[in-house]
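#onboarding

Welcome to the new folks! Below is a worked example of what a typical request in this channel looks like: someone posts a single protein sequence, and someone else replies with the predicted structure as tokens. Don't worry about understanding the tokens yet, we'll cover that in week two.

Example request:
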Amino acid sequence: MTVPGRRSSTFSRLLRHGFTDPSGAERLLDVPELSELRDDSVLLDALGATADPDLALRGLVRLAEAQPETERQTFTATLLSAKPFRDRLLGVLGASEALADHLARHPRDWESLVTYEAADLHPGVAEFEQGLAEATDAVSLRVAYRRCLLAIAARDVCGTTDVAQAAAELADLATATLRAALAIARTAAPVDAAMCRLAVIAMGKCGGHELNYVSDVDVIFVGEPAEGADEGKAIQAATRLASHLMRICSETTVEGTIWPVDANLRPEGRNGPLVRTLSSHLAYYQRWAKTWEFQALLKARAVAGDPELGSQYIDAVSPLVWQAAERENFVPDVQKMRRRVVDNIPAAQVERELKLGPGGLRDVEFAVQLLQLVHGRSDAGLHSGTTLDALAALAAGGYVGRADAAQLDEAYRFLRAMEHRIQLYRLRRTHLVPEDEADLRRLGRSLGLRTDPVAELNKEWKRHAAVVRRLHEKLFYRPLLDAVAQLAPGEIRLSPKAAGQRLEALGYDDPAAALRHLEALASGVSRKAAIQRTLLPVLLGWFADSADPDAGLLGFRKVSDALGKTPWYLRLLRDEGAAAENLARVLSAGRLAPDLLLRAPEAVALLGDPEGLKPRGRDHLEQEVLAAVGRAEDAEQAVAAARGVRRRELFRTAAADLIGSYGTEDNPREPDPGALVDRVGEAVTDLNAATIAGALRAAVRAEWGDMLPTRFAVIGMGRFGGHELGYGSDADVLFVHEPREGVDEQEAARAANRVVAEMRRLLQLPTADPPLLIDADLRPEGKSGPMVRTLKSYEAYYRRWSLVWESQALLRAAPMAGDQDLADRFVELVDPLRYPAEGLGEDAVREIRRLKARMESERLPRGADPTLHAKLGRGGLSDVEWTVQLLQMRHGWAEPGLRTTRTREALRAAHAAGLIPTEEAQTLDEAWVLATRVRNAVMLVRGRAGDTFPSDPRELAAVGRYLGYGPGHVGEMVDDYRRITRRARAVVEELFYGA
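Example response:
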């Protein structure tokens, strides 16, 4: 008798045996049907060994209650006396609620778990066919299928078979089921059966002999007419048989369903005919098939129907599979497929996805298949449809390092075991790791983790997923390094031919040169080479993700050659997580940034500092430049120092732009392209202003010391004044001076002109640093007018002669360098011109419109596509800017927000003032930002300025990557550009031309 307030001894024993609801378990053990078992310690031990003792006990009670009175004694006696049966039955009941339901509905099926002979341990297709032999319709087929599944699950959960053997048995059971379903369909339609030959080809995991508990079974149907039959009618008959087979397996009955049969991997997918002849299949594959279709055919296996026809199909398509790597679009297709397709996974589920998530099963399967396609064309030993067999063959052939292959094998087995146990519980198709604590506990215990199942499961899962996350480094790139480094004698390695094939498949245009670079970087026993061998497998993957992997690797070799003896360089890349990836992105994204870096490679240090990529403000830059000028011995040295600072800052700006546009593994790409454009415009404007300030100081100091005989200021115009400079922009300026007291005007003018001439000369001297071109063509009278004017001269000219286009140009005027007071007075002088009181008159508006129309017809380069020219084309920069500037000149006198030199700021102010509706403002802004980014992209990619998309395919792809378009999507990029700018032009027609 239990003392009140104290737990019974049974309660405590149940707790020790892993029950989470010992009170409920006590009640269940007291049911009459278990009276002979309740006090048996062997039963408690066996229940305690299951994944979920509570679930196992509930299932056992249901099964015992379902036994006929005459059979219950036999059942309980067998359960107590036969340990293998007890372990199998309770193991299944503790892991699968769905199979417990099946046993409750079919209480005699426990008998299928009793026999324990050698043949039962590893049954094949023949044994499963025997188990399904009595099925005559869809319902009886489901019952027989579940009975066979019960035996597979029992061997699996007891550890009699490992995860790969269980997957193979599930595939064999699927094969037997397809054969049985086809037999039922043929019996139901004997006329159709006599008219045709039909072969069923398994694809996917079934074809690869590695099926899940619950999965679509992918198939392809091949049909031929029987002797003497009409081909068209025979294919129709075969189609009816195939459709019936699919329904038999897929439809829901009183016994549920088996699994969906999916024929969408057939030629043309769901749009193509369900059944084709062999010749029709081959015609499609030879002419139309894409790379992924050959990758899918790697797993093709004839499983049911006409065996001769099935063999003919496999023999015919196999050579095509192993020639896929030689196809024209193989590399871009691979790049597209390699880029993770997690976009369709809901964000909340990504981290729980076993199959498609980062570090998931699909990663291993895809990587192994890719290596098979690359190397299987010359090595038939790799022709396996089973992932783990193929991985072992890759290791045996030296295509993958043995240690890496072993690690991946272990990770893949663990992840597949998780997937099996998750699906087994309710026999539902899912790849999501559960969130419920009880589900996680059962899952952990089913995998042998008993101390703290949930914590241990999460730890092991994350460990194996981390291994898989780095598999591209292990499988694709490390063997390339081993091939060129040749450090361990006797180790099987990639041959030079195989290494070249692999590099080509990963997107390298010149694999021979790439191998030479790798050999130069990684050969030898020095510490430097050892660090490079650690870094390069990761870097090669980042290069391969870009539009120009060859350029990335070549740039890395040049930077490494330049800095190889510097102690901090390799240490920075090895130890600062972001530095190596940032460097890889910068080196492989185009010519400009690597050119800037190679002129002073020590700037690579910026990439490892979290603050290193943030732009420095104008005050900070000007202070540094003026200090460097002050230390220099002459003007040329001074400006060389200033241009050196400008080059470093250009690199900082370009690197930040590229990394923000591409994103990294830890930091996603900047979602707001406008923010990237604003940062570049502001940064390049600031560093050019600081450089001009330095050149001005150097020119003055060389001839006049600290004091020029005239006050002097540089006014920024155009994009410079608008803080919207791109990487390739000139600096548009006006020069203004004012003689100091007591200085003759002619002497002052001569001094001002000499300063301008010297500044321009110094900033354009041929050196390793990019020149800064100063353009003063927006001055009064243009190229015919004097280069420098006094403030009074500007005042007289603008009062008497100023044209409307000059007033418009002055909308961008902003002080940039020199005497601040003089510059401010210049701005006061021009304000009434650019923001005329009461706005522009109608004559002036017409003149501006006439000038714009003339510019459109005359200035667009001959042969340029007006729909793709970023500056002068339809809906491009000029369209948007003239529209905004017209609004500024008409309403700036009344709306202070419009008095800005920045286009986007003025556009926002016009919208805030109600001068432009929300949708139209957004349309203009989107077009302006996109056109600006296109120009920036062209400069970054080609290293020289351009206003339209490049024609070279690799350069065009690099522009696409910068703009956020993945491999193979350049057509979409061009279409989007045309669409966005077409909409902007419609707004311009309305707002600017008044259409």
